């Protein structure tokens, strides 16, 4: 059985497109759970009224995306966990191809979708994610026109959790204090943190180019909110996970990347997103001791698992 978990916050205008696309899936052995993260709109009533087949978990207050997804994972028990943003539209054969890849290739723990821009459907949002030793993550192919350059199934660093499949057994092995996603990250980069932890444990991700999803960029979040949490969380994910020998080697790269972000934000200081990133970096520094305490014992050999030869 497949559990599709959709975190939602004030997404009443977005959910019908997403849920209608799931009704059209060719593969049918799945359940859909919408975890409503304290929405102030009529999201819960809309789903209950128009989509009776969907289970709704309504959280009493907004706790952040990581907590909402953890709630959905804990409430389900299928072999596969699929995460899907509420601002997406899945191709009818999306789930068939995504889970089919994990069915065929047991060596992979995660599967990444081919995410396309909702309003420019010939442009890529993510063909799987990558991670750099300076702590900056990214999406393969982002903003590129799709001319077939990412049409090969291959290993990637990790999936974007906006449309990803996971073996539940792998998530249970990666859980920290019973939680899969680190709720101290709140949102943005919580999937990067999971991907880094998975790579360090030898778990691999397959990119499935025929598993297509169309994504409205940051329809629920984005803007200053995204800038704040990216400014905060880039350094926290690196601090928590980078193996000790590589901390000494790559710390200058982390510091230099953070300085570049500061300079860029100061240059654009009149923009709300720039000011939000600076606040995020400051709060990240204040939160750093907590994430140092989260570090697990790693070895120098582990860092080699963070390297995946791939095209951007």
TrEMBL record:
InterPro entries: Glyco_trans_2-like, Nucleotide-diphossugar_trans. It comes from the Bacteria. SUPFAM superfamilies: Nucleotide-diphospho-sugar transferases. Signal peptide: none annotated. Keywords: Glycosyltransferase, Transferase. Pfam families: Glycos_transf_2 (PF00535). Residues 4-174 form the Glycosyltransferase 2-like domain. CDD domains: GT_2_like_c (cd04186). This is Glycosyl transferase family 2. Pathway: Cell wall biogenesis; cell wall polysaccharide biosynthesis. Gene3D superfamilies: Spore Coat Polysaccharide Biosynthesis Protein SpsA, Chain A.
């Amino acid at each position: 059985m497949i559990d599709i978990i959709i975190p939602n916050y004030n997404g009443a205008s977005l959910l019908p497109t997403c849920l209608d696309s799931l009704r059209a899936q060719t593969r049918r052995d799945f359940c859909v759970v919408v975890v409503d993260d304290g929405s102030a709109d009529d999201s819960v009533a809309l789903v209950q009224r128009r989509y009776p087949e969907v289970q709704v978990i309504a959280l009493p207050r907004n706790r952040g995306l990581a907590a909402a997804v953890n709630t959905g994972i804990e409430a389900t028990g299928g072999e596969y966990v699929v995460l899907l943003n509420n601002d997406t539209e899945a191709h009818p054969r999306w789930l068939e191809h995504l889970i089919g890849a994990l069915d065929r290739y047991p060596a992979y723990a995660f599967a990444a979708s081919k995410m396309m821009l909702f309003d420019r459907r010939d442009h890529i949002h993510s063909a799987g994610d990558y991670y750099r030793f300076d702590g900056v993550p990214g999406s393969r192919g982002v903003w590129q026109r799709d001319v077939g350059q990412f049409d090969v199934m291959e290993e990637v660093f990790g999936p974007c959790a906006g449309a990803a499949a996971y073996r539940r057994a792998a998530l249970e092995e990666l859980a920290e204090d019973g939680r899969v996603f680190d709720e101290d990250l709140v949102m943005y980069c919580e999937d990067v943190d999971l991907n880094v932890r998975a790579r360090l444990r030898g778990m691999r991700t397959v990119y499935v180019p025929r598993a297509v999803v169309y994504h409205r960029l940051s329809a629920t979040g984005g803007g200053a909110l995204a800038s704040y949490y990216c400014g905060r969380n880039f350094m926290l994910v690196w601090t928590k996970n980078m193996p000790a020998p590589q901390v000494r080697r790559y710390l200058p790269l982390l510091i230099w990347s953070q300085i570049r972000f500061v300079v860029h934000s100061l240059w654009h200081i009149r923009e709300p997103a720039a000011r939000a990133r600076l606040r995020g970096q400051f709060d990240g520094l204040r939160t750093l001791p907590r994430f140092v305490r989260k570090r697990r014992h790693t070895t120098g050999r582990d860092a080699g698992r963070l390297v995946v030869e791939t095209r951007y």
